[in-house]
Amino acid sequence: MRSLVCDLLQLRLDEQPDDKLHKKLYNAVRLSILDGSLPPQSRLPPSRDLASQLRLSRNTVLTVYEQLLAEGYIVSRSGSGTFVAKTVPDALLFAPGSHQEHASDSRCVSFSERGQALLAHRRASPRQWGAFLPGVPDVNEFPHALLRKIHTRISRKPQAMQLSYSPSGGSPALQQALMEYLRVARSVRCTPDQILITEGIHQAIDLVSRMLCNPGDRAWIEEPAYWGIRNVLQMNGVTLQAVDVDLSGMNPPEPGQTPPRLIFVTPSHQYPLGCVMSLERRQRLLAVARQTGSWIVEDDYDSEFRFSGQPIPALQGLVEDAPVIYIGTFSKTMWPGMRLGYVVLPRPLAQSLRTAHAELYRSGRLLDQDALALFIREGHYTAHIRRMRLLYARRRQRLTGLITDYLGKEALSEFNDNAGLHLVLKLDAECDDVALAQKANEKGVLVRPLSRYYLNDATQRGLLMGFAAMREEEMEGAFKVLMECITTG
User: Fold this and answer.
1) Helix 227-235 vs helix 113-120: angle between axes, to the nearest 10 degrees?
2) Could you tell me how far CA 306 lies from the centroid of its own chain?
3) Is 425 helix (H, G, I), strand (E, B) or coil?
4) So what's the pLDDT on residue 87?
5) Which one of 4, 66, 415, 436 has the fewest beta carbons within 10 angstroms of its own beta carbon?
6) Structure pTM?
7) What are the chain's domains?
8) Residue 187 and residue 175: Cα distance in Å, rounded?
9) For 92-149, what is each residue's pLDDT tens digit?
10) What are the pLDDT digits (tens) for 147-171?
11) How far is CA 119 from CA 112, 113, 207, 274, in A?
C-alpha cells in the first residue's frame, strides 16, 4: 500500500533540478525534514518499499539513507526501522539565541488593531484540565458508551441529508427535542424553527454581534463578565459599556443618548460572581430593552446546576415575545470539546439569522445532533443532569468546607449562590490575584484571578475555583498547595 511519505517524496523528487537520482532523492528527503513535512521521530519507509514506490533502484535509496544517517538527519533502530532524528544538524544553526534567522522569520507581521488587542489581552488557559480549573465539568462521569450506542445505531444507514450541510439551522430532531426540554426545564417559550444549533457560545455571540451591530454600536456587558464575550464583541468593532453587578445582578442604568444595541446578561447564575438577578431587575431590564429597541442576549450559564431551592426560570420566558436572544450550551452538561450550543431567537430574527449562520459557518454534524436528540428524547440527558447535580453538590460542599476550615467563612464571597460549578475565594484588596494565580498555576493548581474579568479597574480581588472535575478526596492536597502560595505571598 502506498504511504503518504512516499507521495510527499515523489512530489519533492519531481521538484529537484539535479540530474542525478541519488542527489534528487537526498534533497527531497532533507528538505522535507527541514521544513517539518517529515517531523522529528517520524518513521521513514523501508528502503525496499520506497524504491518500489518511487521506481528507483534500492541501491539508490540505500545510498541516500546512508548519507542522511551519517549527517545526523535520520537514525536507524535495529528491528524497528529508520526514523527522522529528534534534532537535525540544520536545526542547531537556528537554535534559540542564535543570531541567524530564516528569511521568513525576519518578515514584519502587521495585525489589525483589534487583532493586536486580542493577543495582548489573551485569557484562554493553555491547560484545560486540572485542580480547581473553573468552568470544567467532570467529563469522565458522562455516559459516553450510551451515547456512542445511539450514534452507532443511527449511523448504520445514514440518510444523505445527515451527511451534508445543514440548511435549516441544525438537526430538526434536535431542535424539537430542545424545544421540549427547554419548555419544561427553563420555562423558555419557543417553537423548533426559532432554535439555531451553533458550535458553542462564542459562535453564537459572533453571529449575533455581526448581524445586529455596526462598528461603533454600543453593548452593555456585566462588570465583571466572561472575557470571551468581550473578545468577540471587540473583534467585531462593538463599543463596550460595563454595567456594575451587585447582589441582585446587573443594575441597568438610564440608557442616555446612546442606548445599547445589545445587552449581555447571565441572570440565572452570574459569571463570574455567582449571584442571581432579582425579579425586579429582570423586569426593569426588559422595560429598558423595549424602550430603546435593544436586544437582550441571555447566556443561561450553569443554570442546570442549582443545589437548593427551585430552578430560576429563564428571562426569555418571563413575558410573551420578550426581546431576548437566549443562548445555551452542552459544554457544562456534557463536555466542552463537543462544541455544540444553541440559540433561541426571537421570531423577527429567526429566519434571517439562520440564513446568515448557513452563509458564514456552513454548519453540519447532523448525525451527532440526531444522536443527541435521541439521547434527550429518551430521558438520558435529564437523568445525567440529576445525577451530576448530586455529585457536584457534594464536591461544592467539600470545597466550601476546606475554604472555611483554612481561611474562615469570610473568605467565601458574599456573591456565591448555591449553584454553578465554581466558587469565588475572596482576597484582600491589596492582594495581586493575577500574580497569585500564576504562582499557583505553575504548581499545577489552575485557579483564575477575579480581577481579570473586569473591563475597568477591578473593585474586587479573588480566585475562581472550580470543583466539578475534582474528586472530594483529591481536593485537600491541591488546596494545601494553594494555601502555600497564599501564605508565602
Assistant:
1) 170
2) 23
3) strand
4) 74
5) 4
6) 0.78
7) 4-93 (1.10.10.10), 159-378 (3.40.640.10), 383-487 (3.90.1150.10)
8) 16
9) 554 444 444 444 455 667 788 778 877 776 666 666 677 899 988 999 999 999 999 9
10) 999 999 999 888 888 888 877 899 9
11) 11, 10, 21, 28
